[in-house]
Design brief:
alpha+beta; PH-domain like; 2 domains; eight-stranded mixed beta sheet; 8 strands; 31% strand; elongated; disordered N terminus
Length: 185
């Protein structure tokens, strides 16, 4: 399968709208975000490139819009496979537990250090809660079209959690079951 990307891009989510059972004319999935990275950020600041990406899945089409200028479209009837997953950065959770243990150890010996370690522990827990990321991949038979991306919460983006993943998975499953010729019995 020819993919649109050499690697899976990571987006900082700004808007996610998921509707597993939409009414007529509504979309199943709308994801909007900006590509992350220093170069994408620098090009955006300089006004040389728009790092925005939109993915829209409605009852008939899968649309991807890069920077408002590049449009890729495939019919939902050509979906032959999809994957979706959710993860958090477990390193932040491990660091939070380490800070909690160190806080308890230094509580009597160095109370000021214990307070600093406790504050770091709360920071790592907050970062863990904000580190949610969803991976989405839709493969289509027509012309090797595919959508592969990773959408993350980040510090300034929309906060993602496991319910967002479940809604996205159900929306893609529903549109595939209803429209894809590969899922028809």
């Amino acid at each position: 399968m020819l993919k649109l990307f050499k690697s899976t891009p990571t987006l900082l989510a700004s808007k996610i709208d998921v509707n597993p059972a939409p009414s007529s004319g509504e979309h199943y999935l709308f994801i909007e975000g900006n590509k992350i990275g220093f170069i994408a950020w620098l090009l955006k600041i300089l006004g040389l490139k728009d790092p925005s990406v939109k993915i829209i899945v409605d009852d008939k089409l899968i649309k991807r819009v890069d920077g408002g200028k590049k449009f890729s479209v495939a019919p939902t009837s050509s979906i032959y496979g999809f994957t979706s997953g959710y993860s958090n950065k477990k390193l932040y959770l491990v660091l939070m537990i380490l800070m909690a243990c160190l806080t308890l150890y230094f509580l009597v010996k160095a109370p000021i250090l214990a307070i600093i370690l406790a504050a770091l522990g709360f920071l790592f827990f907050w970062l863990y809660k904000r580190s949610g990321a969803i991976e989405v991949s839709i493969a289509c038979y027509k012309d090797g079209f595919g959508v592969d991306m990773r959408v993350k919460s980040g510090l300034t983006g929309k906060k993602l959690d496991k319910s967002d993943f479940e809604n996205i998975f159900n929306a893609i499953r529903n549109v595939s079951e209803i429209n894809s010729k590969f899922y028809k019995q």
